[in-house]
Amino acid sequence: MNSSTHLGHQAKKRFGQNFLNNEMVIEKIVDAINPEPNENLVEIGPGLGALTEPVVERAGNLSVVELDRDLAHRLRHHPFLAPKLTIYEADALKFDFASLVKDDQPLRIFGNLPYNISTPLIFHLLSFKENVKDMHFMLQKEVVERMASGENSKSFGRLSIMTQYQCQVIPVMEIGPEHFTPAPKVDSAIVRLIPHTNIKNPVKDIKMLNTVCLSAFNQRRKTIRNSFKKLISHEILQDLNVDPTLRPENLAVDDFIRIANYLSDNPVENK
After folding, report:
1. Average pLDDT, stretch 33-55?
2. In the chain, how long is the greatest CA-to-CA distance?
3. Residue 58, class by beta-carbon neighbours within 10 Å (0-12 exposed, 13-18 middle, 19+ buried)?
4. What is the value of pTM for the model shown?
């Protein structure tokens, strides 16, 4: 690893920057991503290039989306990386990832995501899922647990449902804080997301599914009879084969899809 990638940059709190510093961990992450030449690889937040360098070594070139002007400048003038990178100095939360699709090659997206924006960023990326082959992200371990969690678990919630509906969620490995500079206060984990090519039980409107999840988990201690009372009556919940006395974490993803589809078909339904 080129030592210049680690020197002279102060991590910025406002960007939630924590930089990987352990060669063996970096190698394991790159092995998990498994980049190949001629793939359409995109890194979000390349930072000091800890993942960028070994990925480029295997793949030959890479698109990167970096918000920090100093880091984008450093990559543009990097003796080894600059010619192999296409740099987009942009906010990943607003970036049009579909614009990176070329020759019908789906995107393989990866990155050490800033923890303060990881959930909204994943929702944004999922809106491009038709263009994506897979995604590998380093996130707070607790966020990966929420993504992968099944019903009847305290960590099951909106993130679990929205992610699992759209992707296969595969936790890959956990990474302790000591492998970062500065060390974060939390454990991290790598997750692999593979968008479903065929959804067996499709939702009619993904925004409605999101609305239903927000209503349900806004006050997760309430029964769904109470949390949904502005959306749907308990009689209709029973008709949909959903027990209104349960708490939201006790419902399966398919239950949320049935409720969302009913509401899409019956928008006037209020009680």
Report:
1. 94
2. 67
3. middle
4. 0.89
